[in-house]
Amino acid sequence: MTAPITALIAEDEEPQRTELSGLLATLWPELIVVAECEDGVSALDAWISKKPDVAFLDIRMPGLGGLEVARQAPSPAQVVFITAHDEFALKAFEAGAIDYLLKPIRTDRLTETVARLRSRQPATQVDLTALIDSLAGRLKPVETITWITASVGDTLRMIHIGDVILFQSEEKYTRVATATDSAYIRTPLKDLIPKLDPEVFWRIHRNAIIRVSAIRQAKPDGDGRLLVWLHGIAEPLRVSDAFRHRFRAM
Fold it and tell me: Which residues in this protein are found as 4-aspartylphosphate (predicted)?
């Protein structure tokens, strides 16, 4: 009897981790997911104890990133890196036993990946050191914002980026909203985008950027336009057609 094929999923955002697990259950029903991890350290521990045949690794995770987890892995597995950055969709990913998935993960792309993984079983030991080093060299750190100096009336307020759930354009200003209140800055959204981690913040409209983990629900209105509600903010936000694909599983 053929041994079941097992998989490890390492993704720090729970909604995306759950979505990938659900898609795999549909596209590869005989695959057994033996561990779902939210950081690199627990992913490496799970790899050591579970010895998966396939590992889906988010490149950016707390503790250890996916590249470092793959570098330290003690047993062979087919590796699939997950990234929100188009610059990582390189030919290098398609060499050897490495594959990649871009966020948001599309069903058709995952179907292709599953087909490749099936054809490569059982997993064999492949030296990925040179390839991982090459990819790591291309990994450009995100110039993230830590503190925002915003105006509340005549008062200046320091807001930590970890508290921000929404950036929204309002005439000549940008609204910076937390779950409890709002303030305003003069920096336009186009200048904020390069300094925000694309795995944490999504642009959903030309006038709005939201924190993914703050999403409470998303559903169409009577005219078929997709609306999003955030925790702590009563009014819904419209998702433009250009960004609607991000919510296909919601």
Answer: 58
* pLDDT on residue 104: 80
pLDDT of residue 89: 47
- Structure confidence by residue, pLDDT tens digits, 68-89: 888 888 788 888 988 876 555 4
- Distances in Å between the Cα of 207 and the Cα atoms of 117, 136, 151, 160, 204 are 40, 33, 19, 21, 8
Q: For the structural domain made of 147-247, what CATH number should be given?
A: 2.40.50.1020
Show the low-confidence residues of the chain (pLDDT under 70).
1, 63, 85-98, 122-143, 248-250
How many residues belong to the chain?
Answer: 250
Q: Does domain 6-138 have CATH number 3.40.50.2300?
A: yes
Helices (H), the chain: 14-27, 40-50, 66-72, 107-119, 129-138, 189-192
What CA–CA distance (Å, rounded) separates 211 from 230? Answer: 9
CATH 2.40.50.1020 domain position(s) in the chain: 147-247
pLDDT (0 to 100) of residue 183: 93
* Rounded Cα distance, 62 and 216, in Å: 23
Is-contact 237 205, C-beta < 8 A?
yes
Domain with CATH 3.40.50.2300 in the chain: 6-138
How high is the pLDDT of residue 250?
46
Closest C-alpha among 68, 70, 75 to residue 48: 75
